[in-house]
Amino acid sequence: MGRFAHFADCHLGAWRDPKLKELNLSSFIKALDGCVSEKVDFIIISGDLFDTTLPDLAIVQRAVEKIREVKDKGIPIYLTYGSHDFAPNSISMIDILNSTGLFKKVVEAEVTDEKIQLRFVTDSRTGAKITGLSGRRLGLEKKYFEMLDSENLESEAGFKIFVFHNAIIELRTPTASYSEGVPISSFPKGFDYYAGGHVHENLKHEVKDYGLVAFPGCLFGATFTDLELTAKGEKRGFFVVDFEDKIENVRFVEVKVSDIFFEEVNANKKTAKQIAETLSKIAAEADVKGKIALLKVDGELLSGKPSDINFTEIRQTLYDREAIVASINHYNLSTEEKMNPGQVSGKSRQEIEAKVFSDMVNSFKIDPTLKGTLKAKLEKVLTSNAGIEFANNLLNSLKLEKQEGETKRDFEERVLKNTLHLLDLEVKP
Amino acid sequence: MDVPAGQPAFADPRYNSFALNTDYFYPLPKLRHERKIAFIDGGSAEIVGAPNFAVGLTRLYFCVFKGDKRSEAANIPQRIDFYTVCYAVPRSNQIVYKTELVPVKEEWRKYLPDTADLELDSFDRTIMLGLQRAPISRILEVARVFAEWRFSSFIAQEELEEGDVLVRDGTLQTTVTHEGKYADEAYQAALQEKVYFTALSKTSTLFTETGQPLFSAIHELSESSRMKDDAWYYYPIATITQPDHKAEMLAVKLHKQSEYVFRFEVLKDQVNKNNFGEVELIISALAENSKDVCFPGYPYGLIDADKFARVSMTEKTVNEFQFRAAVSREVWDKISKFVKSSDAHELLNRLIR
Amino acid sequence: MQIAGSIVYGKHGSIMIRQKMETEIELGDLLVVDQAGGNYSILQVYDLQYGSQIPDKNLEMISGMKLEGFRADMDFMEPSLRNYVLAMVKSVASIKVENGNEKKVHIPKTLPQFMSNARLVQKSDLDFIETPKNPVFLGYVRSGSKVFDVEVNLNGVDVFTHHLLIPATTGRGKSNLIKVMLWSIIGKDYCGILVLDPHDEYFGRHSKGLKDHSCAQDNLVYYSPKPVAGSISLVFDFKSVKPWHFQGIVEFTQAQHEAMTVAYHTYKNDWLCAIVQGQDLPNVDPKTVAVLQRKIDTVLGLYLDDQGKIQCRTNVFSDTLGSRTVKDILEALESGKKVIVDTSRFTDEIELLIGSMILHEVFNNYKRYKLEGTLDQKPVISIIVEEAPRVLSQDVLKSAGGNIFSTIAREGRKFKVGLTAITQLTSIIPKTVLANMNTKIILGNELSSERSAIIDSASQDLSTDDQNIASLDKGEAIISSNFTKFAIPIQVPLFEDYIEKNATGTKPKEQTRVVL
Known about the structure:
The complex is a heterotrimer of chains A (429), B (353) and C (516). Chain A is of the alpha/beta class. Chain A folds into three domains: 253 residues, Purple Acid Phosphatase, chain A, domain 2 (4-Layer Sandwich); 88 residues, no CATH class; 66 residues, no CATH class. Chain A is built from twelve helices and 18 strands. Chain A has a six-stranded mixed beta sheet with strand order 4-3-2-1-13-14, covered by helices on one side. In chain A, strands 7-8-9-10-12-11 form a six-stranded mixed beta sheet, with no helix packed on it. In chain A, strands 15, 16, 17 and 18 form a four-stranded parallel beta sheet that branches. In chain A, helix 2 links the parallel strand 2 and strand 3. In chain A, helix 1 runs parallel beside helix 2. Chain B has a domain of 241 residues: archaeoglobus fulgidus dsm 4304 fold. Helix content of chain B is 29%, strand content 27%. In chain B, the strands form three sheets. In chain B, strands 3, 4, 5, 6, 7, 8, 9, 10, 11, 13, 15 and 16 form a twelve-stranded mixed beta sheet that branches. Chain B has 353 residues and is α+β, with helices and mostly antiparallel strands. Chain B is built from eight helices and 16 strands. The longest helix of chain B is centred in the middle third of the chain and has 21 residues. Chains B and C meet through loops of B and helix 1 of C.
């Protein structure tokens, strides 16, 4: 009998707030401890171990220490890359760690005649055969699924696990925030377990002609939306799967690192003053001690503007009441009064970023006087979905923080080099 | 009843007939002809009529064929229309009919007869019906006939060449006062251009001395000749010395499957009795134009000429109303009295219908 | 310029043209009569008859004699002059040159000059046909059987909003027409199209199809119960089905309707499961519930297995999969994508139920957008449904009181939601529905009763086009639309030829850079 743990979307390094960053890391450490106490034979991580390609090194160091500890206990970690922790045009932290042998990336393939022939990685202790595909931003992995040589994979005997990092269109829940996804028909059939990632909700379905498809959700979350879902009852943790020739049992093991207080206020047909009073009252009365305190206000104000509400003061009230983290989500708060031109609304920062990038890329026009290879290159990189991906990558690249001990000059060079790399250009010596 | 045919019977002693004889049937040479044949015909209709005046519309038309192929007229109009206005005037205790001719286009006047030739006594024997005064509408017909002769002159001169043929509907016999002048004009033109002047008549009132229609008798005779299953011509029928009838007369069956035998005349001066070859060729050329399945044995050109020369009832009616509209009320009131004196019969017809 | 004939008599709407020797005028031919100043009239031939200078009886006799061998060596003199063809034509358009050299189309109100020559239409005569904004390609201009390289495009927003009817009998090229139309608009986001595909013929599972378009990856979505790799499984969560989706699609008794309503009020989105599982329904006769369960099994294939779990025989309904299917389809349509739903493995009822589920949401959304004032920013949405009398016939509408399809046929125009109905039997669709379908692409039809129904409801006067329609060959059509000045005869190109000619629309072979 074999046993493995499956989790995903750790997003280590996410969060500006150091407390949330720490809680996120704690959930990862707790999950690994859980895996050890469950005596699993191996662990599968389905992408987005880190939140960015070059995360905070302090976080990386502590994560690596924990991974090392687990590895030394004889528990291998198999993983795929995700849509956040890896970028195709540059070296990511995860690439570096993979090269150290700390974990095993299961995406090994040959590409011949537009066909991707994946190879299996066999777990030596249990004989389980593992393969999969990494995630890409904006669902660009969809193309790789179309190129997959499924016949080869389906004909393989033994207990098989397919690891992936994307939503499956047919399995998304009504509340899912992902409009992209890959149809189930793109997956090779007949695997015993489909270890999914990217979906920050806990789902498990037996799919006819396929097998058990499981999304463990995120361990802690990378956004306030994740925390809101947790507050509403979404369980966070990992799957433990017992198997022999086939799956014998699947359990979900919860990982909890903090309580969350969450309250949502609908601002429709209310004035800014009324909302401010409501929020202040909630903040003053809520039991938020030692908790993550989240308030959300959305809708359309009858009068006044969102800027008329003193969110800072309300947040301070929550901190005064010993909340460990206080956040007020008002991204989707608007007013019936005319919005400023150029103002974009969305449910989350990521959604707003996506909208802005999409609008900008769609309206972008290459200088018609440019010709030849330069024009072709720019067309390839700066338009359509590729353009949006580039914008995201560039933003992430520019978010890089100066490392301790790094000179300003070195930091600038690093940022410049990364940016040019995205454009497939080099600095002239 | 089988009655022997006998000889063609002519009342006029200037016609010397030949006894009907099966030896007089001759075959037509079967050759491809290059000569042109012009067919001419005329039609007319009375627009307004009264005992003392008549207005008519007359139309002349010709077409040219080379075998079975139509040829375009190059130099003169193929069709001309003119109005004939006749009115009765008293002169020396006689009633004389005077005529004005109004061509639809002034340039066509040259094709029309001289109006002086159309001034005829109402008791001119050549236009009388029996012993009665000639009706004034007879002048319309006379004008048409004269115009046909004159027009023929122009056709021979302007459209045809040596060896070509002109065919008129009817005979080469002139009957009306002054008609001979126009016939001679036409003959002169033809002779000058070496164009054969001919006529083909659908009907004939000639008899044999046994009372049979002459051409039916000839047709019947052909049944017992060697020509019975072929096209043929029959000659001679009679020697003609009548000065108003300058023709050699023949009978022709222009298609082997035709049920008709027609009277065919050629200008006498153009016939060489010793070598009848040219006449045979003319008839053969005519036969080549007589193969239409609708009326085999009758020249298609004459069918065409007849069709386009007609003045239809519709045109007649339209012209009538135009005339009424054109004359002033005062004038119409004056002439309507005259019109009423002759249209009572027509009114009766309308009432009965 | 080839003279085809000369006007000899007639009246407006019925002009006779005598055909010139050695010319062949065809039914449906477009003829041109030139006028001064570069203006001209376009006439269309709607009937042909023999004309002769010889009376009929004589012709019969002559014919008999020739047949029986009499007068074998004779023939008509000048046969082409005396026996000829008369074409009956009607004036369809008057083209006037205005503002210098701009050609404008007008409805003809005068007769062309008597005895004027008519010539066969040429490509340059058709240059007044413009490509409108938001074009949807329908075919090439046709004159008789001759096809010109002149595209006929209509404004897709107008056409789809105001509904489209495609009447035709089997084998006349309906599917080919739809494929060509869709190919031309795949890359265009002014319209979202939902195709209920009962023969699985549009995607191109085994042959060339819409999947081969270069924009298919981003703009074409294919749902099938047996999906090919890369296409989406057609599966709906039970919760997506609502009682009102069945109206006019599946017949239920009054008692059954009430039971469904009670179930919905009690169990909300789980109402269907509640019925199948036999959960308590207050004040509903158990016998009614039992009958309802059987009916749901028959229609939807839902039943309880031995473990008490709900199963679906057709696999199109599920408790775990497809909770976003309707929403995804909606989002796709509202982004101007083309969605093909393969219903080839389902009964009519399931196919139409699926259509009903999606259309209800589409319609509700668009009504809401109109209220919010954002409808103008949305693409027009049209649903293509075959065998339209299943939902639009007199009988169906009378017995069931209507359904979402008929609602859209009547009211959809106000909300930019349209119907593209394909039918073999136009005569059984009520005139009130037909009158709302402002564009008709008429393909061949041998049934005279059907032709009459089509002609009666056409946007132009096609009363003389009965023969024209009867003689339409495969791929030939007549567009009768409120958005064209006259009924335009077209040839719809064969799909395979069309996509070859429009090769820029075909997926280019590109080397994919794979980074794993």
